[in-house]
Specification:
Largest sheet: 2 strands, antiparallel
Number of helices: 16
Order of helices and strands: HHHHHEEHHEEHHHHHHHHHEE
Radius of gyration: 23 Å
Shape: globular
Number of strands: 6
Length: about 500
């Protein structure tokens, strides 16, 4: 075990019992360490266990200790909140146990474990079934965890601040990777790159080094940057709703720059989707006569004018960018990588059809698209249940009118997040980057208190001393009871095994 892994475990144990937002900081910051195996891979059969999933598990433990198992389970199985997501998760677990055995030898799949040359093989049970099921469970629990946390305005504020710091760490790791490569000091990053995954950290496009940060490849780093970029770029008008202050614009600019330097074709396409979503948000704000929206529109216009001036005065700069986009996006269809990944999707779709729409079982079938991963692994039943939950969040409105801007940010940010994983993710779960947004949206939309048995207010629970103090708005005599002690009403790109 390398020293970064030891440090991570020490911080995780401290965050579990610490007061304040330490656990939220750990959760978001850990996203940037996508190649650090916190348990030696040889000790767990070659499986890479990454910091984000351990952080999600620690957060789950802390939230359950706070609200109590009864209240937590009540939220999981309440159809008004997370019942459909829970049913989807249960179907995924059952599919991992049964479907690879029921359809064994009858379907061809691309296994989750990467090999030098991926080829269709006969379906059968593998350890990936249980690993991917565990990732999916943690993704679903993250939605519920963030929901309980965000029901308290004080903790919601802490959560959003921690998210901003997570974005800053994503920038720092990208810059460290870039500088270490230029200085010939990439060996210093080896203690952070201990996973059993195939690492593509030295790639170049033209004369440009592909920035990968501490992720396994450029596309994974681009997805990381975009997970932070969308919410930060679509900040609501009220600073209390998204407290990133004056450093929001520089942080968004750096995340955009590093996405460009990753030279990921999926990242470029997703970056365009982020820009479009931001423009839609600005247009909506102008329609509502919000002053900040008009100010944002002014700066967008200035950027367009500046881009035109650069194109006129420095055509060589435009030619360089156009050459890069042509190599990375336009001619992507002619690369061996594109041909191989298209084959994954074709085999995955055929597995969905040949399984009569039930799926091959979670963890059985690799694809290069989240959509095909869902269909091929958990089939139509899982896809329908997941879609119902997601649709309920998208169609809900914030219960408090003051949170309407934050709810709008959640919905708009989810669009590019889901678009990114639809292009690149091989996993069934929608990933931690979307999971926390779904949890936040659920907290804004469904903040009422109900009892497990009757729908009446649930009794408050004693507040553990190691958790942050209660918000004054959620005191024991308020309609919400203790901070998380009453039951308010109603995704990961997990890496392959």
């Amino acid at each position: 075990m390398t020293y970064p892994a030891v440090i991570f475990w020490l911080v995780a144990i401290w965050a579990l019992f610490a007061r304040g937002p330490a656990i939220y900081l750990l959760f978001f910051i850990s996203w940037s360490f996508g190649t650090l195996a916190v348990i030696p891979t040889q000790a767990v059969g070659g499986i890479s266990i990454m910091p984000p999933w351990i952080s999600a598990a620690v957060l789950s433990v802390k939230v359950v200790l706070d609200v109590g198992p009864r209240v937590y389970l009540g939220a999981l199985f309440d159809y008004r909140r997370f019942g459909f997501l829970t049913l989807c998760t249960l179907y995924a677990v059952v599919s991992a146990l049964l479907l690879p055995r029921i359809f064994a030898g009858q379907l061809d799949v691309i296994t989750m474990r990467l090999v030098a040359v991926a080829a269709p093989t006969a379906l059968g049970p593998t350890p990936s079934n249980f690993i991917q099921a565990l990732y999916f469970i943690l993704t679903s629990l993250t939605v519920v965890n963030i929901y309980f946390v965000a029901c308290d305005p004080v903790r919601r504020h802490q959560l959003l601040v921690a998210f901003g710091w997570g974005g800053a760490v994503a920038v720092i790791t990208g810059l460290v990777d870039l500088l270490a490569s230029k200085a010939g000091l990439t060996g210093l990053l080896l203690p952070y790159r201990t996973s059993a995954y195939v690492l593509m950290v030295d790639g170049e496009v033209g004369d440009m080094k592909r920035v990968v940060g501490l992720m396994s490849e450029a596309s994974a780093y681009a997805a990381l940057c975009l997970s932070f970029l969308a919410p930060i770029a679509i900040t609501p008008d009220r600073r209390q709703a998204a407290p990133w202050g004056g450093w929001r614009v520089p942080l968004a600019a750096l995340l955009t720059l590093l996405t460009y330097l990753s030279t990921s074709s999926g990242g470029y396409v997703a970056l365009v989707s982020v820009v479009l979503v931001v423009l839609v948000g600005i247009a909506g704000g102008m329609f509502d006569s919000r002053e900040r929206a008009w100010l944002a529109a002014y700066w967008v216009m200035m950027l367009v004018v500046a881009a035109i001036c650069v194109a006129v005065l420095r055509p060589d700069v435009v030619a360089t960018v156009a050459k890069l986009v042509d190599a990375v996006v336009i001619h992507k269809a002619h690369t061996s990588s594109y041909v191989e990944r298209s084959m994954w999707n074709r085999v995955a779709y055929e597995a969905f059809l040949h399984s009569h729409g039930l799926g091959a079982g979670i963890g059985c079938c690799r694809s290069s698209s989240w959509v095909f991963a869902v269909l091929s692994n958990i089939g139509a039943p899982g896809a329908i249940l997941m879609s119902v939950f997601m649709a309920r969040v998208f169609l809900s409105r914030g219960a408090d009118t003051e949170d309407s801007g934050l709810m709008r940010m959640v919905k708009l940010s989810l669009l590019p997040n889901l678009f990114v994983i639809s292009l690149t993710s091989p996993s069934v779960g929608f990933g931690l980057g979307a999971a926390w947004l779904f949890g936040l949206g659920a907290a804004l939309a469904w903040p009422l208190a109900v009892s497990v048995e009757t729908g009446a207010a649930a009794p408050p629970r004693a507040h553990p001393a190691f958790l942050p103090p209660l918000s004054p708005d959620l005191a024991p005599n308020s309609p919400m009871g203790s901070t998380l002690g009453r039951d308010p009403v109603g995704r990961p790109g997990g890496a392959g095994a």
